[in-house]
């Protein structure tokens, strides 16, 4: 069976790959959406924090002998902690100002972090060994599916959905959402809003670091890995609607699929297709597919 | 508010896509500009290491002792032809730069070559690969020093077809360099009796190659030719291993691989790869001595052939100026072609009328982890291709400077 001249089986393979890339988009755009939703800060450091996640995982493995599974837990905590420091000492001073200031600060931080890694480790990057348990793969008949990629999809879906659940369905989440709407009122009820904001930023940064750890065995751990990816992720956030949790998850996965299909039918356009969609969405629904006009 | 936010976000995205260009401004008599990718995926191949190589050449030439004042400046072209063109024009018109060196990324090199010709300056290419620089785009102001796509294709392509790899699928970086490398390799494959089953062009730079690799796998070609470079090649090789492509019986041909790439991939994944280089640090005693000096000043990173080429070309450039006592670009290039070349790294060589520098090329194979005794001890030399066979014969390049 063929679909538009491409064997159906090959197409399934490509869709699956698209879904895997979509997992990374979803995980990263989720972090951005969470941060934007509560802090109103466009976190341009996100890509650098993803890179940081991969590098810290590399260092844990090669300097301390702590493997992949330990890194999955430790790295988001460590990198998240640096996020807490950044929020406390820098970002918290900018909330009263225009978005532009937050952008400049986070963009500058991203350049500094990226530059530091490049000076220390060069641009070719470093290899990160895949954990023993996830090596090999399944022969699906139409393609060879590495086990690690299956893990990426499952883990990313689990993290995305539980984040959505916590924010939309739990009491803690309702505090968060209320604080977004009216911080003064929530504070009046005795909830420590500044601390909640700090921890939310730390959490968002931790998500980026988690994505970085998951990416390390597949891609080269290199200083520009975040910069290459983050531009696409911002487009995903814009398409999904800034600040919308479910929007960023759904858009992340579906844009991965669309990109995957483009790679089959017109590979040359595969890095532009997302921006074309972004332009169209902005024309028709400026608030994004899942966003609400404020 | 929402609109403002959006425009802020998009402004930021543009800023991310194009980090600020940096150029050092200086004045002096002979001003050498090293232009390359200082921060992106090709920064380890050329980058700050090329600037270092140029400075070492100035020092080893003994410019100060000879009463010549030489200055080295550098800039980051970010692999973008428009950025590279702007730097070249500013350097020539405002900063009084006399010659530009290195310039990896073929699309940028072609643009800089054109500008250099307009301004009557000198351009010595080490980093860029496209053989068009000495073919239809050749220039009396440009010398192509270290390697080119024809050399790579000829060395690697014919060796692989001879050992049974007769059906190919190309994974090509979608810009001037990838296209030239694919074209030159395809010609060699067809000439040696092989066939090309398909090709796919990936955006440059790319991150995820699994989709393209699956297409290559489906083609059932024996050889998947990687017509890309740097980080793109590294990620292609890693992901091909992950998707079991080599285990499935298909082989990868890295058409342009640098020692820094092998260092980044690691020997366990890279072992057995066969490709062509025009210089390796462990070739002979002078090369080893130079490489150790270089590594000591470069954070223990050993030089690539591109960086060695910058050293060698700066040395010959300064010798030519010493001989004719002028830094007029067109005259210096003519003098460089007239004089035989001789330096510790590439040995004795010549430069042809079309601007092609000639020296031997080496077909290398990556060692197994057990065979590697020291850091950067990565290659076994499988064959040496003599200088007169390593590069495209001058009459086949369609260079307008050469009368047929």
Secondary structure: elements and pairs:
The complex is a heterodimer of chains A (294) and B (404).
Chain A: E1 2-3, E2 6-7, H1 8-39, H2 46-64, H3 68-89, H4 99-121, E3 137-139, E4 144-146, H5 147-169, H6 171-181, H7 183-188, H8 193-215, H9 225-240, H10 245-265, H11 273-284
Antiparallel strand pairs in A: 1-2, 3-4
Chain B: H1 2-17, E1 30-36, H2 47-61, E2 70-76, H3 81-93, E3 99-102, H4 106-119, E4 122-125, E5 142-144, H5 149-162, E6 167-173, H6 176-191, E7 195-202, H7 210-218, E8 223-227, H8 230-242, E9 251-254, H9 259-265, H10 267-270, E10 274-277, H11 285-297, H12 305-324, H13 329-338, E11 341-343, E12 347-351, E13 357-358, E14 361-366, E15 379-385, H14 387-390
Helix pairs in contact in B: 2-12, 3-4, 5-6, 8-9, 12-13
Outline the structure in words.
The complex is a heterodimer of chains A (294) and B (404). By secondary structure, chain A is mainly alpha-helical. Chain A contains 11 helices and 4 strands. Chain A has a two-stranded antiparallel sheet. In chain A, helix 2 packs across helix 3 (68-89). The termini of chain A are far apart. The mean pLDDT of chain A is 90. Chain B is an alpha/beta fold. Chain B has 2 domains: 19-147 and 284-355, Response regulator (Rossmann fold, 3-Layer(aba) Sandwich), CATH 3.40.50.2300; 150-277 and 361-386, Response regulator (Rossmann fold). In chain B, the strands form 4 sheets. A 5-stranded parallel beta sheet of chain B has the order 2-1-3-4-5, sandwiched between helices. A 4-stranded parallel beta sheet of chain B has the order 7-6-8-9, sandwiched between helices. In chain B, helix 8 links the parallel strand 8 and strand 9 (251-254). In chain B, helix 3 runs parallel beside helix 4. The longest helix of chain B has 20 residues, at 305-324. The interface between A and B is large, with 61 and 59 residues.
Q: List segments of chain B where confidence is low: pLDDT < 50 over at least 5 consecutive residues.
A: 19-26
Q: State the share of residues found in helices of chain A, binned by percent.
A: over 70%
CATH architecture of chain A: Orthogonal Bundle
Strand content of chain B: 15-25%
Q: Indicate the radius of gyration of chain A in whole angstroms.
A: 19 Å
Q: What's the overall geometry of chain A?
A: globular
Mean pLDDT of chain B: 91
Largest sheet of chain B: 5 strands, parallel
Name the helix and strand elements of chain B from N-terminus to C-terminus, one letter apiece: HEHEHEHEEHEHEHEHEHHEHHHEEEEEH
Q: In total, how many domains does the architecture of chain B comprise?
A: 2
What is the architecture of the largest domain in chain B at the second tier of CATH? 3-Layer(aba) Sandwich
Please report the number of helical segments of chain B. Answer: 14
Q: Order of strands across the widest beta sheet of chain A? A: 1-2
State the CATH class of the largest domain in chain B: Alpha Beta
